Amino acid sequence: MATPSFRTAASRLRPSAATLRLSLRSEGLRATPQRVSVLEVLAAASDHLSADDVWFALRSGGASVSRATVYRTLALLTESGYVRGVDLGQDQKCYDSNYADHPQHGHLICEECAKIVEFESDQIQKLESEIGRQLGFQIKTQRLQITGSCQEFRKLGVCTKKRG
Ligand SMILES: [Zn+2]
Ligand SMILES: [Zn+2]
Fold first, then answer.
1. Residue 17 Cα to ligand 1 middle (Å)
2. What spacing in Å lies between the alpha carbon of 130 and ligand 2's midpoint?
3. Measured in angstroms, how far is the CA atom of residue 44 from the centroid of ligand 1?
């Protein structure tokens, strides 16, 4: 009998700046201070952050970094596969820092408050490789995004932490 096998919230590691520098270099990227601090902000967040969230966090931490630099840095880190963009719809894009460690995790997104819940499932992974195998594809990346109403909305009819 198959039991549902999924885990909520892919665990977020809090790598040190030194670890981040090493892993940037292992991706063939120069470990500039901006890149390292953008990754630090993402890694310290318990949630997915927008580019502006990252910028505000850096500024409030005393860094003098321009908004354009933050956008450029996130674009580069996304392109290199280090960070993944999560499209929330309504022109809202967030960034995922644990993509490198948890490339298979999916997202449940609340349409009301844009809250994101992460999950991983061995069964979905198995199904994806099976689909790829049967249709002759070698799977490189996948993204699973499920939209709906969060538990809070369903209970209270309103989300207390509405984004934007
Ligand atoms: Zn995520
Ligand atoms: Zn909600």
1. 21
2. 33
3. 13
- Per-residue pLDDT tens digits for 55-81: 999 999 888 899 999 999 999 988 887
CATH: 1.10.10.10, 3.40.50.300, 3.40.30.10, 3.40.630.10. Which one for 14-99? 1.10.10.10
Residue 62 DSSP label: T
SS3 38: helix
In the prediction, which pLDDT does 86 show?
85
Q: Is 76 helix (H, G, I), strand (E, B) or coil?
A: helix
Q: How do residues 102-120 score in pLDDT, each as one tens digit? A: 888 899 999 898 888 889 9
Distance 34 CA to ligand 1 centre (A): 22
Secondary structure (3-state) at 65: coil
CA–CA distance, 157 with 116 (Å, rounded to integer): 18
CATH classification of 102-164, choosing from 3.30.1490.190, 3.40.50.300, 1.50.10.100, 3.40.50.720? 3.30.1490.190
